[in-house]
Design a protein that fits this description.
Arc Repressor Mutant, subunit A, Tetracycline Repressor, domain 2, 2 domains, globular
Length: 202
Amino acid sequence: MVKEQNTEDRIVDAAKKVFINKGMDGARMQEIANEAGINKALLHYYFRTKNKLFEKVFSLVFGDVLHVIEQAVTKETDFEQFLENFIRQYIRLLKNKPFIPQFVIHELNRKPERIVAQIQSKNVIKEQMFSIIERAVEKKEIRPIQPVHLVTNILALCIFPFVAKPMVKGLALDDDEKKYKQYINERPDEVVAFVKQAVLLR
């Protein structure tokens, strides 16, 4: 059982690399088998079709994003704590797995209904997140703002440095990888401070 699980994990890790580099349409099962160090017959034993394998990879990748939101959103969480948790955990996820934004954006362009279905399946998370923002507005802790706009603004501030890494690094940071890593390390504090300054009423 352990051996089977290890083989499946290797296949999923290999598929993730190939799908990120080639996309769903450009990926080939033989290439994935080669990356995993197995033969194609064994790959098909675990995952009958490329589509089933992609669905597994996509579910895991997007699941990481949803997990971050789940961790940040609790009924006991006040607005500032939610803000801190959400931004710091989300940027930490992107720092550890910088391929996620491009992977999700590629899938949004190719098959947006897949992402919509994933989000709808976790609708309670969206409701909890929006409720935290709406309560903060009602208590006059933050300026009046629609939750969808605030969440969109936060996501954009977190995601852009990863999606646009070549531009940020090349134009603003002298194409220096060390400077870029320092910039990413500083990003959570900067985004938290920026959003608080923009919305808090105190």
